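Order emerges. As here.
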Amino acid sequence: MSNNDIIILQPKYVADFQCDGSKCNAKCCGKWRIDIDMETYKKYQRIKNPAMRKKILSSIQPSTIQTGFQIELNNKGVCPLLCEDNLCYIQRNMGESALSQTCKVYPRMVQQIGNYQFRMLAMTCPVAAEYALLSPNAMGLQQISCEEDTSAWKLIAKNCNMKNVPNDLSAVHIMMGGLAILQNTSYTFEQRLVILGLFLDKVEDCQQDVEAVAGLIDYYNSDTFQQEISNLWENWQYYPVAHHQFMNGIITVLKQEKELLISSEHWQVMNDYYNNVYEERHHLVQERLGSVLERYWQHEWLFHAYTYSFSGGFCIIIFHI
C-alpha cells in the first residue's frame, strides 16, 4: 500500500499541537522507562563534540527488560537530559531528528484500519489534553495529506498495527457515525449515549453493509428520529429508586458469591450518600465541565471504538466509556 492510498483523518487539535515543556513541566520525561533504540544509540556514539557525547552517553544504560538501551533516570525519577527550563538537551542541541523513537513519537497515536489512518494524541500529555479538551472545535475531524507528514508521524504510522476487519469502509463509517452522534448538540450528553447504544445495536444487523450503516447514521441524526424519540426523554431521567434496585441486586450477587467485603448496611449508607451527591452536584459539574467531558468521551470513542467493535457485542463500548 503506497502513501498515496492512505486517507489520514485527525481531530483539529492535533494540527494545533506543539510540544512545549515550559507549559506542561515535562511530565513525559520521567517516572516511566524511556527506551533508546540501537540506531539512535549509535548516532550518539558518533557525536563529534566530546562534552556533548559524554553527557548524553553517561545518561544511558543497557535496558533492564529488553534488548537495547534506556535513559537512566536521576534520583527524582526524571530524565537527566532535561534542562532547567524543561526543554530537552538533545533536541535543543541536535534537533528533533536526533531523538530516540520513543521520545520522537510521544504523544502521537495512530489507529490504522485498511486505507484509513486516524491520528490522535495521548491525553497523558498535558499540552495535548489542553488542546483537545479546552478548545471548542478541537474534535472536528480534518483530512490531511501525507505530504504534510513530519518524521515523527511517519515513524509511528510505519510501526502501528493494522486492524483486520471484514470491511474497512464500514468500520470507518461506524466510527464516524458514533462520533457524529456524540457531537449532536440537539441532545444532552446522557441522551447521546442512549442514542449511541441504539445505533450500535442496529449496526449489528447491518452485516458490514456500508450503505446500510450510512443509512443508520443519517437516520439517527435526522429530525425524523428526533421527533420519534422525543416522548422517551419526557419519562427518562435519573431515578433514585431505580439506582437502589440496581445496587441492591449487586449486593445480593456479591453476598451469594461471598465477595461482599463490607456490610450491606454500609452499602445502604453509600447509596443514600451517592443519591444526595448526584442531586447536589450533577448540574454543577455539567455546567462547569460538561463540554470538557464531552470532548474527552468523543476522543475515547474515536480511539477505542474499534477495540470493542467487531469482536462480540458493540454495546460493550458504552460500558467502556
